[in-house]
Design brief:
The structure holds three protein chains of three kinds.
Chain A lengths: L1 H9 L3 H15 L8 H26 L7 H19 L7 H22 L6 H19 L19 H19 L2 H18 L4 H24 L11 H14 L4 H17 L6 H16 L16 H6 L11
Helix pairs in contact in A: 2-7, 3-7, 3-9, 3-10, 3-11, 4-5, 4-6, 4-9, 5-9, 7-9, 8-9, 10-11
Chain B lengths: L2 E12 L2 E12 L3 E5 L6 H8 L7 E6 L2 E2 L5 H6 L2 E3 L12 H7 L9 H5 L3 H18 L17 H13 L5 E5 L7 H18 L2 E5 L3 H7 L2 E6 L2 E6 L1 H6 L1 H8 L2 H5 L1
Chain C lengths: L1 H35 L6 H22 L5 H28 L7 H22 L4 E2 L8 E7 L9 E6 H23 L1 H11 L11 H26 L2 E2 L3 H16 L4 H21 L5 H15 L14
Antiparallel strand pairs in C: 1-4, 2-3
Classes of the chains: A mainly alpha, B alpha/beta, C mainly alpha.
């Protein structure tokens, strides 16, 4: 059994198989009552959180910055996609994917602007810029009557289904993985490790930063769009508390690890829902757990380690997960 | 003889402090060029000026006859100037192999969109970066450590890895900042031979900052002596050894015996 | 015209009150950052606890000391609040941050976020509903100026300052001056500045770094607690969630002033207070956050290391 698990962890088939199984269940659940309504919402929330977590990990984990503005990108995606489906092209469910991409694109555009600021500033100072950005976005929504002002945007159709969520989770993980294990990903990681050395090795640091911010904010926006078509949206939801929640999931799962991000999102969302009956004690327990975890495992559950499933075959060799085949004749 | 790198009347001031003042260095292609001088003479600052980390306050820096002052560090690296750092700057949490692959950034030509969707060219390019990096690690005695985390390597191997990484840029000019720091006499002698080999094998011009006189005098074709940010002498090792100003400012008695 | 000026003057007084509270909190962030280059995200919640501690202590102490002049009771409670919150701050550092000093910097930040959440949620368990702080002092209003409405119809406009406002500003200034003295003139202050300057060599010189860091947390948290008490007296309805927003805002103030710089924190606090209050004077009140944060963003874009801060020097 143990040997089977070890070989399954290295094999290539389990991940596609799991994804296929996931889609099968998700699509089936639309026609058969497999999950209760509550369970569906929890599962979709887990999916949205995985997208948030993986995309924030790109900037905070792989690139080593400390952005606290992810809820801002989420709200950008949520509001723009919801305006798209409720006001511009209403009653066209087929356009839902377009709305999601639109939400992501707007978030990516703003992410690009934030990336420009990251050229000059980094570390704690950049963290504050992202914080100010978050507050500005939130109070912008509060001051635009067109999107409902402080009361939020009402009447958004609940179009976010389990299959759609799974679809976007897979796309997010796939695209971020492809990015990380490319030369751009190496550049992003090199920025975290030593920006000056990266520069001296000819790495185009600015290009890498832009790419990290744009991709991260795009998927932050996608997550927001999915959220918007599940719950009603209110500017207060996308505040510093929401950003903190995403941060907690990222660092709980572990930085620089997609497997960690998935794990962090699942564990956190699960606990949040499972401890619901405890009322106010819930947050006491969760925060105590977080402190304990950080004290005993400062890098999070899977910090800097990756599930072999997520490594492209080429990188399995390059990272030494699978020993190099003696080639060269 | 053509000068590969020319530093002409370069001055660098940090606030009121003048780290380099009216400094002149000419590096001939194919040479190994030593830069020596007491601590604080401005040697590392000179490297940082050449590689674009600092901008010169005054003066011109030319590489292959073209001005490179004001270019971004990554641009300077990509037109053929590689370097190592005095206090080793590796990506300590990455594997040895990935450290070298980083320097292939500009040699892999696929676009971001090809990376995001894993189009064929990205795969081919990446495979090339792996193969070439591994080939590079061999002569440096690091092939067996390709998958080790760079920060876990012993100090000497880290120094060698830094040189290998810089060579992955396929530079014409390699700047080495104290490559023999912390080495004993035997190791330094081995390094001298190794650098000779590097120069021949990779057809690269070397500029090195070094305190080990033995290495400098044995390896270098030409030596520039800096003191308080100024060029105080420039010549062949024999000339430098005989130059009274140098002996006065820097070499003194004990260091001279070493050489 | 005179009216507008009067209104502006009135708002300036309010800005001073708000600014002195932000400044006191910002000091805690800045001091801790100075010695540990760590953002103590639990600081906002210590501020909140300051208000709750004041409420609890007032409930116990005030009935016992009916014969004592209220101002002395106020000072007594202030000192007690500062001591309690200060020790709590030092305690958190001891058990939660110190073990992580060698760990990645971000682990300490997340732990701090966790401590903040823990404090807030525990307080919420004990006080699920908003509480109100009893007034410690009779609050008198002083009329500084009075101008009749030029239209003749409305009530005359007045420029007023309350005894509480005077007290808040005065307490804040006394604390800041005392801190400045402590940092510039005492051995502790010299050690603290030395650690901010070079944390690696200072322990080699025989300075007890751990004790200095504990002291820094004690003082920083104490000031945060004092700010919480003053805030609670100014806005007597207090809730466990109040620490988050005020805390983050004060943090921004610390950064705008130049984090790590003590005078920068004070400057940043007053700037933030002024911007917030004046934004409401010139625009609709809902625009307050939008304007103040945009302005802060602009300051940070042009002065990335704050008004009085300096770029961290990196040796290549």
């Amino acid at each position: 059994m143990k040997a089977f698990l070890a070989s399954a962890a290295r094999a290539r088939w389990p991940l596609p198989a799991l994804i296929a199984l996931g889609f099968a269940i998700a699509i089936l659940s639309q026609y058969q009552p497999i999950f209760s309504g509550y369970a569906q919402i929890v599962l979709i929330t887990i999916g949205i959180n995985i997208i948030l977590c993986a995309s924030l990990n790109l900037v905070n984990g792989y690139m080593g910055e400390f952005s606290v503005g992810h809820a801002g990108f989420m709200s950008l995606g949520a509001y723009t996609s919801a305006v798209f489906t409720t006001k511009w092209l209403p009653d066209l469910p087929a356009l839902f994917p377009v709305a999601v991409v639109f939400g992501g694109a707007i978030a990516a555009l703003i992410g690009f602007l934030l990336a420009l600021l990251s050229f000059k500033t980094r570390g704690d100072y950049l963290a504050i810029i992202t914080l100010a950005f978050l507050m500005i976005v939130k109070s912008t929504w509060e001051n635009i009557p067109y999107v409902g002002g402080p009361a939020g945007l009402l009447g958004v159709d609940k179009m976010t289904t389990l299959p759609w969520t799974l679809f976007w989770v897979v796309i997010t993980i796939l695209v971020i993985r492809n990015l990380i294990y490319s030369k751009f990903g190496r550049a992003i990681i090199a920025i975290r490790e030593d920006e000056i050395a990266a520069n001296a090795m000819g790495v185009r640091v600015r290009e890498a930063k832009i790419l990290a911010f744009v991709v991260s904010s795009f998927f932050g926006g996608v997550a927001g769009a999915l959220y918007a078509h599940l719950n009603f949206i209110n500017p207060k939801y996308f505040d510093i508390v929401k950003s903190t929640e995403i941060l907690v999931m990222v660092y709980l799962g572990g930085i620089s690890s997609l497997g960690g991000s998935i794990l962090g999102a699942i564990i956190f969302t699960f606990l949040l829902n499972a401890l619901e009956p405890l009322g106010y004690w819930r947050m006491v327990i969760l925060s105590a757990l977080l402190i304990a975890l950080m004290l005993f495992r400062p890098r999070g559950i899977m910090g800097l380690r990756e599930l072999p499933w997520f490594l492209p075959r080429r990188e399995l060799f390059a990272k030494g997960v699978v020993p190099l085949a003696p080639k060269k004749t | 003889m053509s000068a590969l790198l020319e530093i002409e009347n370069v001055t660098k001031r940090f606030g009121g402090l003048c780290a380099i003042s009216a400094c002149n260095v000419r590096v001939t292609a194919g040479h190994a060029h030593g830069i020596i001088g007491p601590n604080g003479a401005g040697k590392t600052t000179l490297f940082n000026l050449i590689t674009g980390i600092y901008q010169p306050t005054e003066g011109a820096i030319r590489f292959r006859g073209e001005s490179i002052a004001g270019l971004r560090p990554s641009r300077i690296a990509n037109i053929g100037i590689g370097r190592t750092f005095q206090n080793i700057r590796l990506c300590k949490q990455l594997t040895v192999l990935d450290n070298v692959r980083i320097a292939f950034d500009s040699q892999l030509h696929y676009a971001p969109i090809e990376a995001l969707f894993r189009l064929p060219r990205s795969g081919r390019d990446e495979q090339r970066s792996i193969d070439e990096s591994l080939a590079l690690l061999g002569p440096f005695g690091l092939l067996g450590h390709a998958h080790d985390i760079a920060g876990d390597l012993p100090y000497g191997s880290q120094r060698r890895l830094e040189i290998a990484r810089a060579l992955a840029l396929k530079p014409e000019l390699l700047l080495l900042d104290e490559p023999a720091a912390g080495m004993n006499t035997g190791e330094t002698a081995a390094l001298t031979e190794f650098l000779r080999w590097v120069r021949a094998e990779f057809k690269v011009t070397l500029v090195l900052i070094e305190h080990h006189m033995h290495l400098v005098m044995n390896l270098c074709d030409r030596i520039t002596v800096l003191d308080f940010g100024q060029t105080i002498a420039d010549g062949t090792p024999e000339e430098i050894r005989a130059n009274p100003r140098v002996i006065d400012a820097y070499l003194g008695g004990s260091e001279d015996e070493q050489a | 015209m005179l009216h507008d000026l009067l209104y502006l003057a009135q708002q300036t007084i309010n800005a001073l009150q708000q600014g002195s509270i932000y400044a006191l909190i910002a000091l805690g962030y800045s001091m801790v950052y100075g010695v540990l280059t760590m953002i103590n995200f639990a600081h906002g919640d210590l501020f909140m606890l300051g208000a709750f501690a004041c409420m609890l202590l007032a409930g116990v102490v005030t009935p016992l000391l009916t014969a004592v002049p209220p101002i002395l009771v106020f000072i007594l409670i202030l000192l007690m609040v500062m001591a309690v919150i200060g020790f709590l701050g030092a305690f958190i550092e001891r058990v939660a941050y110190r073990p992580l000093r060698g760990a990645p910097r971000v682990s300490a930040i997340i732990t701090a976020l966790g401590c903040g959440l823990l404090i807030e949620s525990l307080t919420l368990v004990i006080f699920p509903y908003s509480q109100s702080i009893p007034p410690l002092l009779a609050n008198r209003t002083f009329e500084l100026m009075k101008v009749a409405d030029p239209a003749g119809a409305g009530a005359p406009l007045t420029l007023t300052i309350t005894a509480l406002q005077i007290l808040i500003i005065r307490v804040a200034i006394v604390l800041m001056v005392a801190l400045d003295f402590l940092i510039r003139k005492t051995r502790y202050g010299m050690a603290m500045r030395a650690i901010s300057f070079d944390a690696r060599t200072v322990p080699l010189m025989g300075i007890p770094v751990d004790r200095i860091i504990s002291m820094t947390f004690l003082i920083g948290a104490g000031l945060g607690g004092a700010a919480g008490m003053l805030y609670g007296l100014a806005y007597p309805v207090i809730a466990p969630s109040m620490g988050i927003l005020v805390g983050w805002k004060a943090f921004i103030a610390a950064v705008v002033g130049g984090i790590g710089s003590i005078r920068g924190a004070v400057l940043g606090g007053f700037i933030l207070g002024a911007v917030e209050v004046l934004a409401v004077v010139f625009f609709e009140s809902t625009y307050r956050d939008l304007i103040s944060y945009s302005l802060l963003l602009v300051i940070l874009i042009f002065k990335p290391y704050g008004l009085l801060g300096s770029a961290p020097n990196q040796k290549v």
